[in-house]
Amino acid sequence: MERREMLRILATASAAAGFAGFSKWAFACEDVHAAGRGVQQIKSATYTPQFFFADEYPMVERLSEMIIPSDGGAGAHEAGVAEFIDFMVFHDDSLQYPFRLGLSWMNAHSERLHRKKFLEITDAEQTELLRHLAYKKEFRDGEEDGRAFFELMREYTTMGFYTSRVGLEELDCPSLKFYNASPACPHVDDREHKHLPPPKY
Amino acid sequence: MAKQIYDVIVIGTGAGGGMAIKTLCEAGLKVCALNAGRKLDPGKDFRNHRMPYDMKFRGFDDPKKRAQSYGYMDNEYTAGIWEHEITYTTAPGTQWMWPRCFAVGGKTNFWGRSAARMGDIDFQAASLDGFDVNWPVKYEEIAPYYSRVERLIGVASTVQNRPSNPDGEYIPPMNFRCFDWILKSGADKLGVPYLPDREAQLTQEHNGHPACHYCGNCTEGCDIGAFFSSPRYLLPAAEATKNLELRTNALAKNILVDDNGHAAGVAYIDRNTKQEVEVYSRAVVVAASTVESARIILNSKSRHWPNGSQIRAVRPDGIFAITSTVRRRTDICPNCSDSRRSLTMFQRQRSRGYRGGRI
Questions:
Q1: What are the φ and ψ backbone dihedral angles of B229, each rounded to 5 degrees?
Q2: Phi/psi of residue B152, each to 5°?
Q3: CB spacing of B175 vs A176 below 8 angstroms
Q4: Cβ distance A156 to B352 under 8 Å?
Q5: Measured between CB atoms, does A92 come within 8 Å of chain B?
Q6: Tens-place pLDDT, residues B255-297
Q7: Strand order from edge to edge, sheet including B31-34
Q8: Which of A64, B79, B262, B323 has its CA 20 to 30 A from that of B228?
Q9: Strand stretches in B196-311, DSSP E
Q10: Model-level pTM?
């Protein structure tokens, strides 16, 4: 799904180094001196994970899409959060063990509960499993490792989503706009802001 | 071949250096300016309009580089601008961070734009609290110079009638935003004034510089020059006089003195060729930021100055350099989304490293 217009396609240092690129987003060319401003890195049709194994990557996708689903608008799937997570974990040694361990914990836990791996259980069973990791009131003993991994997964999912274009648009982020004049508080009759409409979230 | 002797060498092109360069060039003197780093190209080096998704690491920067960051201003967006090639050591058991920007213009490329005037509460502070010594000047002597600078650079604020923060010549202030009004409502109840800061940021076009469009990324460098920075507001005027020779990638080593112990030039290392070069002049202005200036002066040992040179007026009419590396982080953001309080070249100097992460 195209989220940005491609300005030009040039061979970049990244491509030469063997990184085939993302499929859901393309950062501007890192080496602006060589390629000029605004040139984007090559976007490939599909993303080949650099760190996660073939059985792990779909789990990352599924988990990120459960944390930020696409209901009512773009979600982690459209934003390519799983690609972002793979990219960040590949470059950060301190994340690699926690992520790998966490994913294998998810599979082991799913087998303990349902005798199947995480991706093989039903949606409802997956949601149930995650609920106990996500919400304080639902915490159970013996799932500490899972909770720690879920925190990590949730953190990187929100990082990946809310730094993407669709994420910033969802927040109606002011930095997507330019202002001709110094922006001013519009609540002229309610300076103490006591009668604001309730927040969206 | 006769060696060229400049009138003045100015070390550093930041707030102090840039002003010295402009003033001296416009007075007709031949100035050689030495800058430890390179010239920046706002079009390429300032990524202030890049969004997180434009950046390879979404602005969080390569994990392998994060440990070297000087703080929130030294991030993926400002990669290549802050100085990391020249390293420094700290005494064992101490923890001290020294953010340096050696590029032309130094930290004026991203300073906090807070440009309040010092009053006698500052100039004559020793008379009030008994610490240190008073400045040798009073506010009323400096006020006309503040006015000159404010007219040159454009400072947005209001008249507030508070002697501790004297009023200047201001362009219209930025508007209060929602949180300003909320804070002001509370502050009013406490009897605490909540007032616009003195922002050296343009709310309207000023002397050919465009007005700000509030993208909020000032600390990544402003590619349109909507706030005062030395390379946009001072150096062009100096270059127009044709009296300036700017040498970049020239890391000053020490000040050379003549047989009378007077400054006679500067020895510097050319960072490109790695060779030591000497340049000669009748006077030297050291404006290389607080710690760096001290380094240069203390390194300038000679039989006249066995402990290193001293800062002193080297001409009878008293040219002296005001250096400033002041960075003091506060969390109040009265006017623009990315404003951080810092002190300008005319204010008292403290040094504390920046702390904080971005995004």
A1: -140, 150
A2: -75, -45
A3: no
A4: no
A5: yes
A6: 999 888 889 999 999 999 999 999 999 999 999 998 999 999 9
A7: B244-247, B31-34, B5-11, B276-286, B263-270, B250-257
A8: B79
A9: 244-247, 250-257, 263-270, 276-286
A10: 0.78
Cβ distance A32 to B60 less than 8 Å, yes or no, reads: no
Sequence letter at residue B118: M
Q: What is the ipTM of this complex?
A: 0.75
DSSP character string of B34-60: E-SSPPP-HHHH--TT--GGGSTTTTS
Report the gap between the CA of B159 and the closest CA in chain A (Å). Answer: 19
Contacts of B213 in chain A (CB under 8 A): 178-180
Residue of B nearest to A186 (CA): B178
Task: For chain B, say whether A30 makes contact (Cβ under 8 Å).
Answer: yes
Q: Nearest-CA neighbor of B225 among B205, B242, B241? A: B205
Per-residue model confidence (pLDDT) at position A25: 67
Q: Please give the structure tokens belonging to residue B141.
A: 């002597």
| Token couple for A18 | 């063997």
pLDDT for the residue numbered B344: 26
Residue numbers in A near B177 (CB within 8 A) = 183-185
Q: What local confidence, expressed as pLDDT, does residue A26 receive?
A: 64
A178 interaction partners in chain B (CB closer than 8 Å): 213-215
